[in-house]
Design goal:
Elements (H helix, E strand, L loop, with lengths): L18 H5 L11 H9 L2 E2 H15 L6 E3 H30 L6 E3 H12 L12 H5 L6 E3 H9 L12 H11 L6 E3 H15 L6 E2 L1 H16 L1
Antiparallel strand pairs: 1-6, 2-5, 3-4
């Protein structure tokens, strides 16, 4: 699963989901569930006072048997449903990604368009050449510096380009579950989820003002990634 919420504060946003994902009871509901929400997670502030309520609302959606606990079996079942839905919508997501990159909608993506999209997405001040594993290395079959729709579709179909749904998957969500399961009984209670979320929020709240700023979220994400690589 992709980690789209700020790393150290991931449990603070654990149960924040979009209405669309919530309807499918997907484990993607454990994180920001759309590209829009992904951007919001890193560009909007979050108040500590909102955390417990968000956790409680999503907890109730995930606790399907209403026994007061969320189990790994429940998560696995929801993941399966989400994977099926993601597979069905993959072509639409691929088309949307291509159209987003193809700024002038002429049926091809240039390096300038790719750089502009990256700047808009990350807020960078100037373009940087991408690594050999970039979009062009993967999809520009004839190496002419342009990715056509047919080249993009071929690279997507072959798996060279992964058009992922904005969600979390497999081992990542289990790590979050285990982190929140304080008594290690294999079940996650509402109290445990709320406590873990608040602890993670406080760890990411560098200036201890009760608000996670976009910068604090980005720093927490960076720290979490570094910790996983260590």
């Amino acid at each position: 699963m992709k980690l789209f919420v700020s790393g150290g504060a991931v449990l603070a946003a654990l149960f924040t989901a979009s209405p669309a994902i919530s309807k499918t009871a997907s484990p993607a509901s454990l994180t920001s569930a759309t590209p829009h929400l992904r951007r919001s997670a890193l560009t909007a502030s979050q108040n500590r006072s909102d955390v417990s309520g968000r956790v409680e609302r999503m907890f109730k959606k995930l606790d399907l048997n209403q026994d007061g606990f969320i189990t790994k079996d429940e998560i696995a079942g929801k993941q399966s449903l989400f994977d099926q839905r993601a597979a069905r919508t993959a072509p639409q997501r691929a088309k949307k990604r291509f159209d987003r990159l193809d700024a002038n909608h002429d049926g091809q993506i240039t390096q300038a368009e790719a750089d502009a999209a990256r700047i808009a997405r990350k807020g960078a001040t100037k373009p940087k050449r991408r690594s050999p594993s970039s979009l062009f290395a993967k999809a520009d079959a004839n190496k002419d510096g342009i990715v056509t729709r047919s080249e993009f579709d071929a690279a997507t179909a072959s798996g060279k380009i992964k058009v992922r749904h904005a969600s979390m998957r497999g081992s990542a969500i289990i790590r979050l579950f285990d982190a929140a399961d304080l008594n290690r009984d294999g079940r996650l209670s509402l109290q445990e989820a709320q406590q873990a979320a608040l602890q993670q929020f406080d760890a990411a709240d560098a200036n201890h003002d009760g608000v996670l700023s976009p910068d604090e979220r980005r720093q927490a994400l960076k720290a979490a990634r570094a910790k996983r690589r260590a």
